[in-house]
Amino acid sequence: MLFPIYVAQSLPISAEVKSSFNDIVLVIVAPTLIGCIVFILLIPLVCFFGLFFIIPKLFILENEQILKRAQNASRKAATLNKVTKTFERDPNVIEYAKRWAKGICQLFDQLAPYKNKKNKPHLHTYHIKWISKGGEDTIENTVALCPNCHDKMHVLDLNEDIQKARAKSKNSSI
């Protein structure tokens, strides 16, 4: 049984942030009676501690409802102006990490999935300790990863993957 929570628009946050919550649905799986009871007991706690500031409405969106919403969606993408902070990385560190990898993803231990326009294996340079979290732009803090593994590292941030990347980065000589 699925219990989605609809994040309502009455949150005390800016209009820009609110607009990004328009159709967000968080799904919590509660397959047993105990799971259902725990879920129901958590709703007041979530609201009490100010995570939502509201009592969420429970509802289930069926595939047909999602399809109907998608078909009725605006065909023209909206534009957004954003200000972001970026970090300038040293191109020599990037190139060194890719050369040292010799075309092999240092997490998956397989050849890069495809070659770029210069006919070189397409790998991304990944900072083990993210620069945004105080990591350095050095060869000791970088490994070359295939696009899927690079995405995996940022999405899942698994400790075993981080440890494997650290072990690979320590062997940093071409």
CATH class group of the largest domain: Mainly Alpha
> How many separate domains make up the residues?
2
**Fraction of residues in helices?**
25-40%
CATH architecture of the largest domain: Orthogonal Bundle
The major pleated sheet works out as: 3 strands, antiparallel
Radius of gyration: 22 Å
In DSSP terms (H or I, runs of 4 or more residues), the helix count works out at 6
| Residue share in β-strands | 5-15%
User: How many strand units?
Assistant: 5
Mean pLDDT: 77
Low-confidence stretches: 1-31, 45-58
Q: What's the order of the H and E elements? A: EHEHEHHEEHH
In terms of structural class, how would the helical and strand content be classed?
Answer: alpha+beta
Q: Kindly identify the CATH topology of the largest domain.
A: DNA Binding (I), subunit A
How far is it from the N-terminal to the C-terminal residue, by CA?
Answer: 54 Å
Shape: elongated
Sheet with most strands: strand arrangement = 2-1-3
Write out key terms for the chains shown.
alpha+beta, DNA Binding (I), subunit A, two-stranded antiparallel ribbon, 5 strands, single chain, 174 residues, 36% helix
Give an overview of the whole structure.
This protein is of the alpha+beta class and 174 residues long. The chain has 2 domains: 2-62, no CATH class; 91-170, DNA Binding (I), subunit A, CATH 1.10.30. The protein has helices spanning 15-19, 33-48, 63-71, 91-101, 147-156, 159-170; strands spanning 2-6, 25-29, 57-58, 124-127, 142-145. The strands form 2 sheets. A 3-stranded antiparallel β-sheet has the order 2-1-3, with helices on one face. A two-stranded antiparallel ribbon has the order 4-5.
